[in-house]
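Troubleshooting entry. The earlier prediction with 2'-deoxycytidine-5'-monophosphate gave an output that would not parse, so I re-checked the input for stray whitespace and re-submitted. Clean input:
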Amino acid sequence: MTRPIVIAIDGPAASGKGTLARRLAAAFNLPYLDTGLLYRAVARRVLDRGGDPADPAASAEQARTLGRLDLERGDLRTPEVDRAASAVASIKPVRAALLDFQRRFADASGAVLDGRDIGTIVFPAADVKLFVTASLDVRAKRRHLERLAHGIDPGYDSVRAELAARDAADRARAAAPLVQAEDALLLDTSEMDADHAFTAAADLVNKVLARG
Ligand code: DC
């Protein structure tokens, strides 16, 4: 057992942060939360009720009543939810409602969390902060392959354009924009495989643990 620590991993879509976060959580025996799923689940609930994800009142209500089971649905990674999640993520009361959920998650035994604002807003005092990125072309190729694996082929150009639009929205929004924390280690995975990224990140975590 290691002491409970919080590892914050931020970065744009398809940067490899989810894979890295999952592996770190397993290696250091920490609970893992994919915080993007929270925004996706809120968006899904608004869409299910025929609401508009850009409507602050409708989205905030769904964020406040979000339950654990909502995160386990199998339909949270569709292109429709991609767009709707980006819209709900720019609404301040939605983010406020989800902040508590994320902080409580790490209360008991620490955690690895990945998202866009973990190292800047959710856990500014996290023990380890990583900012994982990759070029737009590399990320679009990865996301296109994921879609193909799910039997969907929207075309590479369309995947690339959607990613670019979502990144721009995530970076430009007023509420908790995607930005690298000053004290985060930058990992550019454009030319790095998952093993290499894991080794670099695990080295950093071990150094922090050794400091005590
Ligand atoms: O990582 P993802 O693609 O599953 O995230 C879905 C959306 O939620 C995306 O538009 C970014 C947003 N998000 C956010 O604003 N803050 C987070 N901590 C995680 C995700």
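This one parsed fine. The CA atoms of residues 181 and 211 lie 21 Å apart.
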